[in-house]
Amino acid sequence: MIVSGFDLKSSNYDVVSITSERELEAKGLGTATVTVTDKYSRTKEIKVTVKEKQTTLNIIRGKYDTYEEVSFDATKSKTVSLSYSGDQKDLTVTSSDEKIVSAKWGIVYSSSFELELTPLKKGSEVVTDSDNYGRKITISVVVDFELKVDKSALNVSFDAMQAKTVSFNYTGNASVLTVTSSDENIVNASLAGGTYVLLTPKKNGSATVTIKDGSGSEINISVEVSVAMLNETSIKFDDNSDINEKTLELKAGKISSIEGGGDIVSVEYKPGDTSFKVVAKNNGNAQLVVTNDWGEKETLQVTVSVTDLVIKEKKIVLYELDD
C-alpha cells in the first residue's frame, strides 16, 4: 500500500512499518493503527490487521499428507512430489546431514513440484521442507547400501609372490570406500576399479585386509602368504650331468647369507641377489643353509656322485683308467 502527500505513523512497528517511500509494510502478525495526517493537520486512523497467509503444503500420493518415508539401497536418486498453494520462493528445504543425502528442487509444474533426494552414504536422516508461514513437511530417509563378497573370497592364500584380485559388490558410491592391511609388510591392499581389491604379497606371514564404507559396513579378508624360498630343495650332480654347476632362484625374499657346502660344493652369490650358483668340487653330500632378508632359512641338500670326477673348465669329464 502506497500513500503519498500525507504523514504516516504506526502504533506498532512490529506489525506494520512505514518505509522511506511512505509505504505500509507488514512486519508480523497482529493489529496496529496507522495514523494519516494531511498538511492541514487533519488526521485519520486506519486499523490494519496482518493475518497469517493461508497456504497448503502437501505430499502428493504419499503415505501421509505431511510425512513420508524414503529408503535407498542404491545410488539412484528418488523424487517426492509436493503441492503448494503459495509461491515456491517462500519454501526452503534442509537436510539434517548433507553427508548422507542431498536434497534439491526438481521439476516445477503449474501446481506442484518435485523434491529430488540423492543418497551419498549409509545412514539415517530427516529432510524438512517448510515455508515462511509455518507449513512443514518431514521426510525420513534411510540409506542402506550393501557391501558384500563371496564367502570363498574371505580367505586368500599365496604360494607365489604374485598379486591377486578379490571382487566385491557395493551398491553405494565406491568413492567412500577405504581398504587397509593390518600388516603392510606382509600384504599390500589397494582398490582397483571400485569393485576389486588388489592384494600384493610382500613376505610370508598372516594379515587381515579390511574394506570399509565409512558407515559401519566392512569386509575382513584373511590373507596367508606362505611361499617356499627355493624352487627346489635338493640337487644332484652325477654321471648324467653336463656341467658341474647349477643356478637356483629364490621364490621368496632376497639372499642374506648362504652357509655350508664344505669341500663338496662352493656357492657364488652376493647379498641382495635373488639367485645363486652351486659349483660341484668333490664327491659327497653337503647341506647349504640359505637365509633370506626376511630372516627365514631353508636347507638345500646337495649330492655329488660322479665316477672319476675331474673338474675342468666347468665341465665334468669322465674317463677310463688304463689297466
How does this model look, in words?
This protein is an all-beta fold and 323 residues long. The chain has four domains: 7-50, no CATH class; 57-143, Immunoglobulin-like (Sandwich), CATH 2.60.40; 147-225, Immunoglobulin-like (Sandwich); 234-317, Immunoglobulin-like. Helices cover 0% and strands 53% of the residues. The strands form ten sheets. It has a four-stranded antiparallel beta sheet, with no helix packed on it. A hairpin with a 2-residue loop joins strand 30 and strand 31. The chain is rod-shaped and about 145 Å long. The termini are far apart.
Question: What key attributes describe this structure?
Answer:
single chain, 323 residues, mainly beta, Immunoglobulin-like, 4-stranded antiparallel β-sheet, 4-stranded mixed β-sheet, 0% helix, rod-shaped
Summarize the structure.
The chain has strands at residues 7-10, 16-18, 24-26, 30-37, 43-50, 57-59, 67-72, 78-84, 92-95, 101-108, 112-119, 123-130, 136-143, 147-148, 155-158, 164-167, 169-170, 178-181, 187-192, 196-201, 205-212, 218-225, 234-238, 245-249, 255-260, 265-268, 275-280, 284-292, 297-305, 310-312, 315-317. It is mainly beta and 323 residues long.
